[in-house]
Amino acid sequence: MLVISGKNWTLSLAELAAYFQAKNVKFKINVYSKVFFVITIDEPSAIDIAGLGGTIKIGEITAKLPTQTMKEAFLEDNKQAQAEIRDALSPRKLTNQMFEKTSVGKAVFGVSVYWSDPVFRPVARRVQRFVGSAVKKELTAEGKRANFMGFAKDRRSPQLSHVEVLKKNMVKNRAEVLFCVGREETFVAVTVAVHDPFEFQKRDVGKPSQRKIFAIPPRLARIMVNLASCTEGKVFLDPFCGVGSILQEALLAKAKVIGVDVNRWCVEATMRNLKWLKDEYSLENAESRVLQGDVRKLSEKIGREQVDCIATEPDLGPALRQVPTTSYATRLTERLEPLYHVLLEEAYKVLRRGGRLVVVSPYVKTRSGQPVTMRIGDKAVAVGFKRVYPFQKRIFVGDPVGFAELTAIASLVDVEKKHIIGREIHILQK
Fold it and tell me: Kindly report the CA angle at 164 between 120 and 176, in degrees rounded to 5?
């Protein structure tokens, strides 16, 4: 299976690993890069792209070839190497299922080229046209009439967006070819699933009650739900539920959700939003409770060892218009530390043994260029939690480049270039 990741590739890969582990699906990560992964999975049907926040496309691999051949073909213009690539593209399993389910006389197919080594960036458009020509020739030989979808010259990369794939029915028609150039091997795949941004957008701006400041996007909310090992039937808690963005994703994962917030308006807003979600997605039997309460009395409100998983985003501090100094950013995070310490203590009480807490803390950019973060790891361990390292050695095949750095990651950072305050995501287990 080939996976095209979201823009934060470490977050995407961590989510996939947690998703498979929570569902007890056997898997191995064969290849990873900043743009795509190759994963061996025993049950391909176990993955539902609608249940993932960090995956853009999923492809079924039909062929592979040495990347050295790609270098010879397109960086050295070797004709023999180009012929070898055409041979790799010619097997009918790449094209024989294209357009089988369409009645359109002349359909459209596309090619998206991804690469892990930037040396291929200058020739990516040439690769895309080369592959497109080879596929079109194969389709013609099979008696199928199809147009090759090109790109505007001002497009940065020769890659179809998930919106284009959806609008052109390319998943149904198996009509997008993914050509992914790795450091050692190059993979050819057909797109079999694609992220639907319209559904996430609906849950973001379509819900009746909104809160713009520090609103967590549904994409990230779903990733956090998966990192918390939230699956069907589990009891899920968000003790700083706001307007219920994280709860919505947990409810769609078929968990029994509990939301708590000290703000009465937030409680009422979450109730409205969850009712809207149940109606919109026909979740008649979904179980949810929303309570007003202070995190300092969370165990009194919820009870001890009543929850399987928690994912939450507490206060990240005030919105900043300018990048602060390191000393100012440090003072901001220090003011928030008592709140986070109370959360850790109370979350430990309400979680069942083996339960997970996924918590966001502020990641503040500073004028010095060194971010200020909240060091909650020591407090979490003192309370009794174990830190969960997202990337365990056992889930990888071999010892790829950068492997040691990846397995050493203890928290995941998600920050936009335009934002001053980002998110650091910690995974803790009781």
Answer: 60
* pLDDT of amino acid 370: 96
User: CB 202: neighbour CB atoms within 10 A?
Assistant: 15
Helix (H) or strand (E) run with residue 39 in it? strand 36-41
Structural domains in the chain, sorted by start: 2-195 (3.30.2130), 198-429 (3.40.50.150)
Residue 204 has pLDDT above 80, yes or no: yes
DSSP 120: G
Contacts of 334 (CB under 8 A, 6+ apart): none
**What is the pLDDT confidence band of residue 2, given thresholds at 50, 70 and 90?**
very high
Count CA atoms closer than 13 A to 46's CA, side-chain side.
Answer: 18
Rounded alpha-carbon distances, angstroms, from residue 287 to 240, 247, 278, 282: 18, 11, 10, 13
Helices (H), 256-351: 264-280, 298-302, 326-350
Give strand ranges (E) for 116-232.
Answer: 146-148, 176-181, 185-194
Q: What is the DSSP string of 355-368?
A: EEEEEEEEEE--TT
What gap in Å lies between CA 160 and CA 176, rounded to an integer? 8
- Reported as type and span, the H/E element at residue 56 is strand 55-66
- Residue 179 tokens read as 């050509």
Q: 11-31 pLDDT, tens per residue?
A: 999 999 999 999 999 999 999
Given a contact cutoff of 8 angstroms between Cβ atoms, the answer to whether 166 and 108 are in contact is: no
Contact call for residues 255 and 231 (beta carbons, < 8 A):
yes
* Token pair in block for residue 57: 């496309």
Return the sign of the alpha-carbon dihedral for residues 44, 45, 46, 52.
Answer: positive
pLDDT-based confidence at 244, cuts 50/70/90? very high
DSSP class per residue in 200-225: HHHHHHSSS----TTPPPHHHHHHHH
What distances in angstroms separate CA 325 from CA 198, 287, 365, 426, one per listed residue?
39, 46, 9, 25
Alpha-carbon distances, residue 249 vs 20, 126, 218, 254, 267 (angstroms): 17, 41, 7, 9, 17
d(Cα 384, Cα 189) in Å, to the nearest integer? 45
* CA-based nearest residue to 358, from 367, 347, 366, 350: 347
pLDDT in tens, 61-108: 999 999 999 999 999 999 999 999 998 887 666 777 787 665 555 688
